[in-house]
Amino acid sequence: MKLTWILVCPCFVIAAAAGVRAEDAAVTVVAVLDTGVDEAHPALEGALVPGVNIVAPGELPGDRLGHGTVMAGLIVARSENPEVRGWAAGTAVRVMPVKVVDGDAAAPAALAAGIDAAIKRRAAVVCIPLASPVSSAAVNAALDRARNAGILVVASAGGASGDFESFDAEPAAHPWVVSCTASEEGPLSLPDGRGVAAGDARGERVCAGCAATGETELMLDAWAVPIAVKGVPKEVRGISVACARVAALAALLRAAHPDWSAARVREVLVTAGGLPEGLREQGTERLRRASREGVLRWTEKREGPDGDLFVASIRRSKGLQGGLRVFVEVGNLGGAPLAGRVEVVPPGNGDPLAAEFEALPPGARTTVPLDLADVRFNEVALVRVAAAGDVNPENNATRVVCFTPGKDGVEIRRLRLAGRQEGAARVTASARVWNAGESAIDAEVIAGVGDASGAARVSLPPGGSADVEIPFDLTRPEDADEAPFVLFVRSGSRTLARAVATVEFGPAAFVPRLDPFQPLRDHRR
To answer: pLDDT band at residue 525, thresholds of 50, 70 and 90?
Structure first.
């Protein structure tokens, strides 16, 4: 299988920046593992701390390729142009360059050493722009050490080259890492690919080439005007941009709340924004929008307790008399109990349906059902939650397509292929199987790639779901560069649901690779 690491999101700095060091309590440091940084760039003056060169120990982590310099700018660049200004510019956030690549390839040992260097120098956030379809034991061990040290890690969920669309990238799929990807605006569509009846309804969707199948948590519009660097287009887009900006948001939270644990920072970071407005993205159940506005609300000084209700997930099933039932899961991200209500505005701007719920304690969730009797199928409805005292409205609403539930009512979500270690054949297919029908189901779940497969059984009551994991040994079909990854749910001779992706095969060597920026010469805002 193909073993490719793609560099997609960097950010660092160099040399002694006005005497400031990463260990200084007054600064919050983002260590970015990339190609280094141009320490003489005027937009980065005073925004850097001394870095580390893993590629050439003892030398400054300079940047002959420009990628790392651009990424540092996205985080801390000073500029009068708001489109160029880094998201953490003018604050106590600084960038530390950790040079782990100086060409189109890097070694896993260099990445692990870079993570350890960030730990040693007390970075608050680590930004990793490298991605691979398989994991490395050395890198996983370094990530575990970062977690134990209370360091938040952000990584890219894939690359623009589209090498692994059917699964989540490593190290982004590591359970501690915040996995992020790029998004773009596009037409909302039904599960079969047809457009919604409204025709012009648009929402967010994951860019092609990004893995958002299960573990990816944040999507962000990754268009940017970078600081001026030779050889870099004036406008760019890519997962590296999203990764750098998410790292900047994480650093802003850490700077504003030095008493928060890394786990608390992670929770607010991945939940401050709302659900994506696209069927495929909502089906992953973990993916949300990265929200700069939502994070900034949590950096504001305020008196008294706070509460933050958010739409956690949405499920749909057959309703009464041919209608649609919508299950809205609401959570409380804040530190104070909040009571509120859920509203669904049906397609066509009809009268909202509303249901209230009692005070929700901090960290708790509740599910509120609403029945849409005369729903116009295949059109768009608005779902929102509201409460007095909610400090962050950025995660309170989303749009959903009221598609007609399948006759068997079985859906497959969070399909992914994981556990692929370098040099090992054992993999694990996983998915969430949900019974949206009216009858209990006893079924067999079968997953496979090529001739290799495994199976598991599930029993699902109406409205119930089960997380299924199916291990098997991956084999490469003869003379094949790729093979379908198929998971289907079967009851007797009937197939109730089916999901398909593609797995690419390649050499079993661990070869990290730099992913270039995507120019957007004709892009307009």
So the answer is: very low
